[in-house]
Amino acid sequence: MKADLKKFEETSGGVTVKLDVVPSENVKTILQTQLRSGNGPDVFGYDTGPGFAGALAKAGLVHDLTDAYAKNNWPVYDFAKQRVTFGGKLVGIPSQLEEVGLFYNKDIFAKLGLAEPQSVDDLMAAATKIKDAGYIPMGVSDKEGWQGGHLLSMALSSEVGSTGMDKLIAGETPWNDPTVVKALSIWDEMSKQKLLTPSPTAVTYDNANALFYSGKAAIAPTGSWLAQDIERNAKFKVGFIPFPASASKGIFSGGLGSGTFISASSKKIEASEKFLNYQISPEHGRWAVETLQDIPAFPVDTSGIKATPLFTQILDDTGKIADGTGDFGYNIDVLTNDTFNNAMGKGIQGILSGQSTPDKVAEQLQKNFKKPTA
Predict the structure, then answer these.
(1) What is the torsional sign of CA 353, 247, 320, 79?
(2) Whole-number CA gyration radius for the chain
């Protein structure tokens, strides 16, 4: 990233960039405090959607980029622009597309004679066999709380499909619907059968990933953003599949990850917009694919790019989100508000710790749901 920033500086006509790295678990608290005090960074990365960037926009903390989009003709995919549009204003540049599913240890599966699960029953049976062989079937973490939203997203997306997810997000289907209870019940049952990391609500995301890298956990339920770290750390072959549905192999939950924004209080708007314009250039997009294994939210020529089989698969799958040829579910947390996300995070922690039930959590989700507004 430092090398990339230097490249921008060399062609920027005098703009310099100071990089400040903040641990992901602290970004929300630190950044909101900085922005509200008027001392925040000129440019910052943050999650998209109503509960994240939308909350900042509502508070008047992000710069309106509508004119910059028109001036620079930024070629962001239409569905991605929707995730950074609030009150009719475009307030950010979507950074990358993502998909959430199951990374699995191909060596363990081959050793135990297991095929890729084609249904939830297949997954449960495979997880049981993995447990009996002395491995942790599913390396689940939920100490931070945000992981629960991804667990629900992947199980629910496969169960109801993109159409069903659309109806839930739009408020046409209530969040205490039996399909939501069923998706929550899958994780409840896996927890009761001890098919997950012991005490997952006490396990951090990094520690759960380490269990997978070391071969102690056979499956890692997380997003495509982890592919590069997996390839660096795992000494075995890795596959990536959707969380299965009741009667099918399921679909990936996918969509938009983070975005890049400019502080409303920035005194360097012109320089900041110039930096965003660089980030959305074809050259930078190709660099992001090759170097960071990101999938940009705008068209990028990937011909000739050398990639591992795992990332090639992810690149192909995620490309279908952009061109509309694949059926993908959604990552719920970037489409719902902060109140709903808090209820979802605490509720799934309650299920995984045995302190709540799928029915109770679904009722809380419905109680805290608010129909999104443009």
Answers:
(1) negative
(2) 21
